[in-house]
What we know:
Mean pLDDT: 81
Strand order of the largest sheet: 13-12-11-14-15-17-16
Helix content: 25-40%
Structural class: alpha/beta
Distance between the termini: 64 Å
Radius of gyration: 29 Å
Largest sheet: 7 strands, mixed
Number of helices: 14
Number of strands: 17
Strand content: 15-25%
Shape: elongated
Amino acid sequence: MNNFSSRTLWRFGFCARLLKTNHFRTAASNTSSPAVRMLLAQYPGRIPDSFVKVQRSSFFKMPETIEDKTDLELYSPPPRVRGMTQLDREAFKRTIVVPVLKVKKEIIGSLLKSLKHTLLQRPGLKRVIEDPDDENGRLVMLDPHKIPTFSLGGSEQEVLKQFDIPPVVCKHDLELTYDSFKLEEILRAVLPEGQEVTSGFSRVGHIAHLNLRDHQLPYRYLIGQVIIDKNPGVTCVVNKTSIIDSTYRNFEMEVLAGESNLVTKVKENNTTYELDFSKVYWNPRLSTEHGRIVELLKPGDVLFDVFAGIGPFAIPAAKKKCRVFANDLNPESYAWLLHNCKLNKVCDKIKAFNMDGRDFLLGPVREELSKGLLLQTEEQKTSSHIVMNLPALALEFLDALRHVVAGAARSAAALPTVHCYAFSKHHDPAEDVRQRAEASLGASLRGRCSVHPVRNVAPNKEMMCISFQIPADVLDGRPCPGEEKPACKRQRTSKDFSEETLPS
């Protein structure tokens, strides 16, 4: 295998399977996944060509099996529902013919165990029903895919022989209703044939959040109701109607079905948050990334969260006994941040601010870093981390790090570590993000940073996190543009935010 170790090949295969699983959850994926590129870069020329071809062809295409095709034919709703925009559950009724065995009810338990691989495998449908012709008998439904000719194979006949049951397969008319069909099957049957069917959504407490495409909009109210019907606990479905605002990171939305209550409660990484989904930014797909960053922190460390939102980095860090300075420009996010600090009993560990991110870096962050680096001793080796999770704009704020702790005595170990998020549509997003970060900092990060792929946002669009310890020459560099300009708004902290403005 050209000296390519079996362990490395296994690792690549595992990465491929993991990526394939994750990317199936998105409406579309791209073949330039950053994790794959990193692995290829790590082992240049060592991945067998045939292996790469096979993996590339299987990463981003949902596997289609024979059972999938027969499922479409056997368990599809009737053709009359095509084009339906107002949900009519009665219109989904359909009768199909399935194979059954007539048996006595006394032996049902033992028989089902012996025939478990031949039984009807359809969720929501009963495998055993009463026999209308025999009150002591039962009808055992078999899988039409396994018994297509209504005749049993040798192994099944042996099982029946042990129970003294005649090997006769009968036909039974099974009525399928709206409740019998899966979400994807209903939408595939209703939407125009050949059009993409997106049944995925983000779950935020009791709210299901959709990003519908144009061809799906005429069916949006039906889609919303079906999602509520098929997902216990979902009582409200919304669709995003505009792009995320670059200032406050929220967006316009339309309630498609259910109640219009958009104040919800979520739990992430053993921490509970409450929020108004219509007024603040929350993305459940970032749960793993929130946990990854918090895992890097140690008790006693200092975290500066520049774009804190409602606190998914700040509050878990405070629960880990870190000192936290959390900021968000959005007054609603700031209010919910304070509310969630109180909810999680970490008010004494977090100092909250309602400021522009640049003003936060040049004000409270600069002040605290300078003070901390001057006072730090060899015995007190705490680390400082700056998190900048505003991927659309965060790289543009890196120039504020120049001269941020100028004149402070410091060792290399005490320099703050930055975790900055960015979107990239480049064919090599890791290299693209590094170069853009360098341009904003005015210093090279080659060999001094790591770039972590966070998630695939859209076709050919990746979210990345670049982490690096601030180079000493950046801290001693020239002041960033506009540093001497007055703040665009008065600094507002949790101390002067009245309790009356907190969400109830």
